[in-house]
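User: Could you check the structure of this?
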Amino acid sequence: MIEGFDISSLVILNLVNPKEKFFGVLNALSPAGITVRAINLDSFEDWLRQIAREDEPNLGLITMFVPLFRVERIFLDEPSGAIKSFAQRFEDVVGMTLQEYLGP
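Assistant: Sure, the predicted structure tokens are below.
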């Protein structure tokens, strides 16, 4: 593992070919690639609203393996000054932490 990126860390994953961004939970990191349970950031706000309204789920996290050659950057999900982290945004809108929502 990379220092600071522990299993179950909340991460933002920037991918190339095609260019995509995901937010989610780090499951594994190896020389071959990264496994995450994540959602595309283009769908993040819709997903929050769906959960907050207790609508029938049509969006959610998916578990996926991404080959390392597609990974441009991995960030820990952390606040930056007045900008909240995605996890904080989730808790503000949904009323529980992401870990509570996902369960054990």
